Amino acid sequence: MKRILFVLTLFLSNLTFGQNNVHIASIGTFKTKSGGIIKNCKIGYRTSGKLNNDKSNVILWLPWLTGKSNFLINFIPSLMDTTGLYIIAVDPLSNGESSSPSNTPDFPSISIFDMVKADHDLLINNLKITHVKAVIGFSMGGMETFEWMVSYPDFMDNVIPIGGTPKQSFYDILLCQTEANIILQAKKEKQDIRIAMQRVTDINILHDFTPQYLATTKSPDSVNVFLAKEYKTEYNADNYFSQLQAMISQDIYKSSGRTIADIKNFIKCKVFVIVTTQDFFVNPLNTIEFAKANNYRLVELDGDFGHVSPFFKTAEIKQAITQFLK
Predict the structure, then answer these.
(1) Is beta strand 270-276 parallel, antiparallel or unpaired with respect to 297-301?
(2) Which of 247, 277, 278 is nearest to 176 (CA)?
(3) d(CA 62, CA 79)
(4) Spatial CA neighbour of 150 closest among 253, 275, 287
(5) String of DSSP letters for 153-203
(6) What are the Cα distances from residue 27, in Å, to 31, 117, 123, 144?
(7) Within the chain, where are the H helices?
(8) Residue of 276, 48, 210, 62 lying closest to 149 (CA atoms)
């Protein structure tokens, strides 16, 4: 997912936005679904817009694997009309300013549900927000959005998962486990973790775009120069591994105890699903099946951009999201 940051950086370099300072909230001692403890758990977040008197204009936005609120908060206006809305962009557990292995001793394994619960605690206890207009997320954030549907079904009016999945497929698990195993092996054998993360970057590049895109837009002679630029962006291996673990266990049917046939009766909000048909990082088949089985609105992005299509098809997504929310 490092490639996403590269694409987003290029996009934002041509735009001008106001500064959004980070807020860091303490949500106290946090107990994970598996029984782990995060002492003095902190959640980092940024906001944009003005909260109205009845707090009915809140949109919660959730970023991708390695994604942070500082990039997300400035990109959101490209994906939706934010007029009259109060946007909250959150750093998920294991990333950014939120509690993570890199800043918290004895950080336990977490799940997508734990990320969602931490955000719910932030909204309820710290911000005193008991209901939101919509929850929206991309990639890993899309997985969190699916989890919101079943963990807190009455908390929002709308949910919009983008490039996420309700349940990890064999393909998704194999991809995440491959990256996780590279990190684990490097630590076990006391290898250079920087080199291990470069191999993870190689895998991400191969999966963020389609083979067609890379073959037709990149010169064979540019591989080493291209990779050298990509390797300059480094991420903490422990944080990355923690997020991979959370993604691997994603399955809202297990979370809710429902099947795809009856889960619609459990979900209370309106649902709008956006996928990329040629997504090689998060396989879209389970997402498409979920949307069609329950007659939810579905937009399927085509083309060769692959998983990062939302960063290239902003106009199409903005029109669709804005129309849906209105």
Answers:
(1) parallel
(2) 247
(3) 13
(4) 253
(5) TTSEEEEEEES--SB--HHHHHHHHHHHHHHHHHHHTT--HHHHHHHHHHH
(6) 11, 11, 10, 19
(7) 2-12, 69-75, 112-121, 140-151, 170-188, 193-208, 211-217, 223-231, 237-248, 252-256, 285-293, 314-325
(8) 62
Q: Which two tokens stand for residue 214?
A: 């890379």
Q: At what angle do helices 237-248 and 170-188 cross, to 10 degrees?
A: 150
Per the structure block, which two tokens stand in for 33?
A: 């679904």
Whether the Cβ atoms of residue 116 and residue 93 lie closer than 8 Å to each other? no
Measuring CA to CA, which residue among 128, 118, 5 is closest to residue 63? 5
Structure tokens at 40: 């003095």
CB-based contact 187:241 (threshold 8 Å): no
DSSP designation for 212: H
Give the contacts of 220 (CB within 8 A, at least 6 positions apart): none
At residue 9, φ and ψ (nearest 5 deg) are -60, -45
Q: Cα torsion at 142, 147, 150, 153 (round to 10°)? A: -70
Percent of residues, the chain, with pLDDT higher than 70: 94
CA distance 271 to 285: 17
Lookup: tokens for 69: 């609120």
Handedness of CA 38, 141, 124, 290 (dihedral sign): negative
**Helix (H) / strand (E) containing 90:** strand 86-90
CB atoms within 10 A of CB 72: 25
Q: Is 116 helix (H, G, I), strand (E, B) or coil?
A: helix
The predicted model gives 279-297 an average pLDDT of 98
CA-based Rg of the chain, rounded to a whole angstrom? 19
Give the C-alpha separation, 163 to 310, whole Å. 8
pLDDT tens, residue by residue, 44-98: 999 999 999 999 999 999 999 999 999 999 999 999 999 999 999 999 999 999 9
Partner residues linked to 101 by β-bridges: none
